[in-house]
Amino acid sequence: MTLILFLLGLILLAGGAEILVRGAARLAAAVGVSPLVIGLTVVAFATSAPEMAVGIRAALTGAAGGDLAVGNIVGSNIFNILFVLGISSVIAPLCVTRQLVRVDVPIMISVSILTFLLAYDGRVGTFDGLLLFACAIAYTIFAIVMGRRDVPPDPDEYAVRYGGPSAGRVFVVNGLYIVAGLGLLVLGAHWMVNGAIALARTLGMSELVIGLTVVAAGTSLPEVATAVMASLRGQRDIAVGNVVGSCIYNLVAVLGLVTVVTPGGLPVSTSVLAFDLPVMVTVALICLPIFFTRYIIARWEGGLFLGYYVGYTAFLLLAAAEHDALRTFTTVVLFFAGPLTLLMLALTAWRQSRREFEVKA
Length: 361
Fold this sequence. Notes:
A middle domain of Talin 1, 14 helices
């Protein structure tokens, strides 16, 4: 019954997020926002709704739920970058716009570092949450204002494009989609959190590890579906923008709001401070040189991201089980895989800079 409850919650989360994304994206199109900005803001915020629903529900259940909430948010960001971007770029190389490289990725890196600094004392307090949520509002306004400079609103063109309701019914119909999606998210989060905590106790695993792996992957299913479908349809701005925007909103909106509604704020365990938060910051930093090289995420780079995620998950499971192979695995990653990756990134960046220099000359 525990497993069935968990799976039913997961299905409701995915379905609710799909309905929410559809309504939110069509509303954005109706008011005239570019595809990149739709991915960075409306779709990103909508696909972060499962993390928010699970985070709020989990944080209000007590200390165990707090570990699950923090693990879900941090794990979702790691999953989004390494797995979602990885699988999307393996399907088809992803083009990255200059705006992402120059504006949005640096913002993602900055809020990742800010989150680490706020959590460094072992707790994200109420004031910290208000600061993060204020950043979410500021980022949303900035992105929409910048995006509307390029795409004028045209509700009538929206109606023709989607074959949907006339301009006068756009907001009503898609508003109902959003409300229905939110309802499914709330119910799904309730079932999934209860199932995840019970499953963790049954398997002898901590709520933190379950949040970093199973729940993080589950609540990121909307990002997976959105990015993969956008990649297959050639809408690569939405694919990359969705991932970058989701990572930003997970920290500033989801973590911010969850912290504000949780009495006393959220405690952050020493293991998250020592390992998971640094990993989150590192994968955010890695995006910049990869995105910068020819403004394309190549297939081999996507494969590299997927390999990183497999290694990260393997480390968590080995550490949770206190397996004898943990020390050997850690040594291989630190002294072989890590330096080799840095060397490949350095060579790629050098080739790109040399190519640009030859073009200018």
